[in-house]
Amino acid sequence: MVGCRKRLDSFLFNPSVLSSYALDSYSGEVSIPVDDAYQVPGSSIHRIQWTIISEGKPTVVHALYVGDTNRIDQDTVLLYCHGNKDHMDFYWPRQKLYSHLGHLGRFGVLMFDYPGFGMSEGKPTEENMYQSTEAALRWLKSHGLSGNRMVMMGFSLGSAAVCEVAGNPSRFSLSPHKIILEAPFASAEILIQDGGLLSMPGSFLVDLKIDNATEIKKVNVPMLWIHGLDDSFLTVASHGQLVYDNKPGQKQKALVPGGAHENTPYVMGYDVYLARILNFITL
Amino acid sequence: MILKSFLIFIGILLVSFSCAPSRFVRPLEKGSHAIQVHLGGPIAKVPGVGAIPLPLTSVGYGYGLNKNLTLFGNVHPTAMMFGVGQLDIGSVWCPWRKESMGITLQPTLNLAMDFYTGAKRFWPQLDVNYFWDYARLRTKPSSSRGLQKSRTLYAGMSHWIDPYPTESQGRKNQQFWIPSLQLGHLWQRNQWVYQVELKALAPIYSNENIVVDYPSFLGNRGAAGLYFSVNYLIK
User: Hey, which residues does A182 pair with through a beta bridge?
Assistant: First the structure.
């Protein structure tokens, strides 16, 4: 029995495999719709890959950097940890949006696919998510980035990677200067308890140890929390508010009336959304 | 719908832990044994499929200690698939019976233990049912088998108690009492008893913002459940 372990962990990860990234040519469902005003030139798009060791095997992880890779040693970079769905093509509109923070090219934006997502090899697991995040941080550091010029942003599942890095800086190559959490979830156990009627241990259904509500207590850098008030999957009350309340030190919040889990930037208005993030990063 | 598939699955399983049909609507005859198989669950809207009763199972055994008291126990294969041993043990007591009708009380203790972590939970339960044998096609009250063919309607209320004051991160448990209403029918044909039960689960609680779409008789409160059971009686 112990050998088979459980159970529903794989359901938290909802990846799709790709043979290539289509980016603007992608015709499938995307996270948010953005128009040509947020286009980025092909010369600013850099396809990157690195190798991590997962379960003893070399595993290729794919990433996209928008910006000038020769200026990472001078630029401020946003490391974006995407949600649990599909792949980078799904989140590509978000990366384009963040590439226009302030103005196009003001910040570099790095996004990567966790193992098992898109073209990244390996299995989608909690450990592999953290390993691939560390690989992203190593790559940024190797290009001259320092923590005081790095902001980490996590959406939904990606909030776990951000909290893990910011809460345990000694275990990672870089530690962020500030963090942004959009629609974070509090913990795997609260996901379980919030979805049912009974006070049930999370371990009854999942092995996941993700616990942002606890990890955030160790985070000392400023945080911006963005959450749609109409998010019925990860509700403000059960998830985001708990993370926010547990965060010591500097923190800001932007609660968005009418915003659901995925569409908060759209509901907020892209200009307002970007301005709010820019204001947090620069002040 | 980033977390939809995960949360739907979680929600379905969580509700499945906490609902099952009435085990025995009326006590068995003294000395009788019964094997039960229960199938069904809450009705949920499954994307791409539609609204369906979820095919959850439990398997149990009952014994008629006397004509008014039956002891029973059930195991839950669905929970077992996830490394959680779940069983319920209880009794059915008939404090009042008149002619073809009666009232039964069913106190039950639901127990669950995670085989991997050792985490344990228990939830007391009390079901109250009124039953009416509206058709008795061949009655042999003095025979060893009692009713041979009958049709029975029953209605009642189920109460689950969640005795844990706090949940993860010290959050207060807001749902100590989880009531449900049930309406069902039994067809007995010799040693076989077929049961169908319709449940209004947790009608006092909102079904909004709980990640799974549960059709309910009461709109935005509770969920509907549909169950089928087969009993095999052994003398």
Answer: A155, A226
Inter-chain residue contact B168 with A157, CB threshold 8 Å: no
- A10 — pLDDT class (breaks 50, 70, 90): low
CB contact under 8 A, A233 and B7: yes
Per-window interface: B 47-106 vs A, CB < 8 A: 79, 81-84
pLDDT (mean) for B135-161: 76
Contact B34, B234 (CB under 8 A): yes
Nearest to A197 among B10, B166, B178 (CB): B178
ipTM more than 0.90? no
Strands (DSSP E) along chain B, which ranges?
33-46, 50-53, 57-66, 69-75, 84-98, 101-114, 120-138, 149-161, 177-189, 192-206, 221-234
Asked if A274 and A95 touch (Cβ cutoff 8 Å), the reply is no
Interchain contact, A201 vs B121, CB within 8 Å: yes
Distance from CA of B229 to the nearest CA of A (A): 24
Which one of A4, A198, A247 makes the best mutation probe of the B interface by having the most chain B beta carbons within 10 Å? A198
Average of per-residue pLDDT values in chain B: 83
Helix H or strand E encompassing A276: helix A270-282
pLDDT of residue B42: 74
Comparing alpha-carbon positions, the chain B residue that sits nearest to A1 is B83
Share of chain B above pLDDT 70, in %: 79
Name which residue leads in pLDDT, A235 or A69: A69
- Report residue B180 as tokens: 């449900």
- On the 0-12 / 13-18 / 19+ scale of CB atoms within 10 A, A92 is buried
